[in-house]
Prior knowledge:
Elements lengths: L7 H7 L4 H28 L1 H8 L6 H24 L8 H33 L4 H28 L4 E4 L4 E4 L29 H33 L1 H8 L6 H24 L8 H33 L4 H28 L14
Antiparallel strand pairs: 1-2
Helix pairs in contact: 2-4, 2-7, 4-5, 5-6, 7-9, 9-10, 10-11
Amino acid sequence: MVNGVLTPLEIQALGGQNIFTVIYDVYITRWFSAIALSLICYDNLLTLSDEVDFLWPKRWSSIKVLLHLNRLVSLCFISANAYTLVGTNGPISNTSCEIVLVSTGCGAYLSFSMCNWILLARTQAVLCHRPLGNRLLLAYYIVSYSITGILVVHTSVTLHGKIFYSPTLDVCGIAMRPSTMEPENSTLPLLFPTNRAMDGVESELIREIVGVGEHVALTRWASAIALTIFVWDNLLTLGDEVYFIWPKKWSSVKVCTYGNRILCFVALVLNTLQLDTTHRNFTYEFCAAYFHIAGYFAYASFALCNWILLVRAHALLGGKRNHFVWLCSLFAVAYAGTAVLVVIATLGLQSQLYYSDVFKAC
Length: 362
């Protein structure tokens, strides 16, 4: 959008769709992109020690090469895709958009083909290298990925010249739909949180609003990443929790562990919900309830975490009574003062809370 008018390529890409629906779809895509990037980085870090212990000492083979190459390729194309979707990186050229989108598609194809080759090798090992089964698997792999490769190349050639940068949504788009919108509908006086292509707008107020919108977009990303990592981490540690924690007798540490998990989950879900642009027209009551619950839950969660650390510190110090008294006193003073500040902050914000129709957030 330039001077409040959609560009011809944007009109063609919309193809009669409601532009607000497209905006919400773009935001959801941004969330999933953030989730994918955070998961692959987090999972790579979690498995790095096992990789160093078990994979690095092994001799080089096709499987080892594919494992390293697949990790590199997937990280590169997911990062590139996330970069174009973040909505705060400013205008980029149509050529850059085409390079990123085509390379993302080719990278995804290569990554899936490498993963399936590794699975094929494992299946062959399970089948004890039976000649007939191996030949059938190999033939199926070659045929399926040859066809997929042809489709990828055909799609890349077809999209040449049709990929463009959308200044309205600050994202790369594809002009593949027929232009069915009426001319008068293309002059929509819209303001988007991530719109940076506003060369004809000199109003300082508008520029400040756009800057705030970019911070809101980054906050949405951070919220999605935090919730994703929290859920993923809980799933990864569930087996150890069942084995080590569930059989133990109930104690303050066990109660704090479960309480902290529940409080964190509720606070993160509420934060993600109020930042989700697919939910519209939240009331003042919801915004007020959200800030109160999220603030109190975050405070309680930090308190429980620090209590667990206190118990561990007490054990490391030999379990002496005087150390425990000093630690408890420090904990009580610190969190009593913090509780007062939390109450003052929530009460002070009571009259300043509202729901923003522009940014779709409290």
